C-alpha cells in the first residue's frame, strides 16, 4: 500500500487535472497579455479565450447569455458577490440544512445588518423537509440559497421542486453548485435556478482560483469590487452593463484558459458518464465499508455523487486521516469540511467525520485500497494495537 499515493479528496479540489488543462495554463502564460484591455494582437488573443470560456459556460448551464457569466475567484467569491450584492435589511432568506460556510458566514454577517435568516429542517436520508421548506416560504421569502449537493453527505436536493415553491412566493433561487458543476447535469432554465455559483477547480477540472457566477435573469447585483474594466473607461462610475458591472481588475487569464480546457474535457467525456463513474465508486465504497465492524456510514446508501462520509468507532478522525496518509498512502479529509451546519444536522459536531470523495480519475483499485485500509485500521483498533 505504500508504493504510491492515492488521492480521494476531490470534493475539496479535483486532482489530477487533464493534461490539456496544464498545457492551456502554460500557453496562456506565454501569451502574457491582459484580455480585454489593449488593441494589440496578444490582448485580443487572450480576450478571445476568455470570451470562449464565457460562451461555453453559458451553453453548458443554459443561462441567460454569455454576458451574464461573471468570472470570479471561486464558488465562495461568487456567493459573496450575489448575497452581498442583492440582499438588504428586512429581506428574508431561507437556506437548506447542510449549507457550507461559503453560504452561512456571509449570511450571518448580513443577518447582523438586518437580513432575516431561516433554516429548513433536514428529513429522510439526509435530504430536506419539503413541507417545512414550503411553510418557511409561506412566511415570506426574498431569496433561497441551496447547496445542490452536500459536501458532507453527498445528498442531492430536489432543486426543481424547491424552486417551484420559492417562485410561487416571489423569491429568487440561488444554487451553490460547488459539488455538482461538471459532475451532475445542471440546466438553469429547466431547474428554475435564478443564480448559479460554481467553482472552476472541482468538477470542471480547471485550476484553483477560478469560478463563475451565472445569472439566469437581469438581477441588479451591486458590485463587490469596482475599478478598471477596459469598458467605458471615461466614466468615473462602474459600468452598468454585464459582465463589466461585476468584473473589475485584471482577470485570472491563465486560470480561465485552463478552465476552458477543463470544460472541453468534461464535455467530451460527458457529464452523465462522469456522474455514473463517480457515483459508482461511491456506491461500491458504501457497500464495502458497510461490511466492516465499527464503521458508521453518514451519507446516502445509494450515493448520487462521489462523496462518502463515515466514522470509525473509537477513532479520532484527525488521527485516522493522518494514518491514512502516512501509513497507507491515501489522501482523504477529516473534520468539519467547512460545513459545521451540516455536521450539526447529522449529529457529528464538533468532532466531524472522515470523507472520501471520488473524481473522474479515481479507479476501482483506489476504492478497494481505501476499503482495505479501513478494514486494517478497524482490526487494529479492535485488537488494541493502535
Structural notes for this entry:
The strands form four sheets. Strands 2-10-9-8-7-3-4 form a seven-stranded mixed beta sheet, sandwiched between helices. It has a four-stranded antiparallel beta sheet with strand order 11-12-15-14, with helices on one face. The chain is globular, with a radius of gyration of 22 Å. Helix 1 runs antiparallel to helix 8. With 386 residues, the protein is of the alpha/beta class. The protein folds into two domains: 251 residues, Aspartate Aminotransferase, domain 2 (3-Layer(aba) Sandwich), CATH 3.40.640; 113 residues, Aspartate Aminotransferase, domain 1.
Summarize the structure.
With 386 residues, the chain is α/β, with parallel strands linked by helices. 40% of the residues lie in helices and 15% in strands.
List the helices and strands and how they pair.
Blueprint lengths: L5 E2 L11 H13 L9 H21 L7 E4 L2 H12 L5 E4 L5 H12 L3 E4 L2 E2 L3 E2 L1 H9 L4 E5 L11 H10 L3 E5 L11 H4 L3 E5 L11 E5 L37 H17 L1 H19 L5 E3 L9 E6 L4 H10 L3 E2 L1 E3 L4 H7 L6 E5 L6 H20 L3
Parallel strand pairs: 1-13, 3-4, 3-7, 7-8, 8-9
Antiparallel strand pairs: 2-10, 5-6, 9-10, 11-12, 12-15, 14-15
Helix pairs in contact: 1-8, 2-8, 3-4, 9-12
